[in-house]
Amino acid sequence: MAKVYLGLGTNMGDKEANLRTAVRLINDRIGKVTSLSSFYRTTPWGFVSDNDFLNAAACSETLLDPLEVLHLTQAIEKEMGRTAKSVERVYSDRPIDIDLLMYDDTVMQTPELTLPHPLMGERSFVMDPLAEIAGEVVHPVSGLTMEEMRKRLAQFI
Fold first, then answer.
1. Residue 94 a catalytic site member
2. CATH code for the part of the protein at 2-155
3. Residue 14 needs a FRET pair 20 to 30 A away by CA distance; which of 71, 77, 138, 140 works?
4. pTM attached to this predicted model
């Protein structure tokens, strides 16, 4: 079983219900959710919006490969009302966003998926909840733990 770490975010509708629905669907379709962070209220990152986000991180144990996980998370997003993915760092309001952050210690770069997520270390809304549930997990590229990455990021904010 692989451990897949996912970042979750929502800034539309009933945000807490959106996160809980996404976690339930991940558990049903990808694999047992073994840990879920607290929910963090954050301001939008990379765009302007009047709607704050609610963010979380989850760990799921799966038998699926990384691209299968990606396709299933995208299907969950679409099912929950997301109409467009962010392209070339152009972001917008969304009912749910599910980012594949890490898949065990897999390092890969394809046109469809880069692992670990290339921007995770720049985003406190990712690193705060991720460090809560996986503080001792080591980033396969930087060699830092999630807690070390979180602390490093906090120094620059």
1. yes
2. 3.30.70.560
3. 71
4. 0.91
